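Side project, low priority. Logging it here so it doesn't get lost.
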Amino acid sequence: TILHWTLPLAPHADLFAKSLIASEPRIRLFALPDIKNPPPLELFFKATEAYVLEFTKKTVPLVRDALSTLLSYRDQGSDSVRVAGLVLDFFCVPLIQVGNEFNLPSYI
């Protein structure tokens, strides 16, 4: 299962994610809702890495809700959902705290 959000300036990422799940039925995409109040685009053009990090920080509550939902499926006995840990990009370091809240290891 891949938690997926849309970066405003990376629409190609959606196409890649959709082609990935189309080619491999065992991979599921869990789409996160759009974040409210994303960082200003001026930050993206001034410091791309800072923009991505700020954007990721704003996804923390969305990822927390998504993991809660996925783990509740597991608790209900669903065989198709097993969350063993979080595999994160370097910019997703703020999400390690969410994994810790659910006693899930994080890997960067």
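Brief comment: Residues 2-30+41-107 form one domain.
Revisit when time allows.
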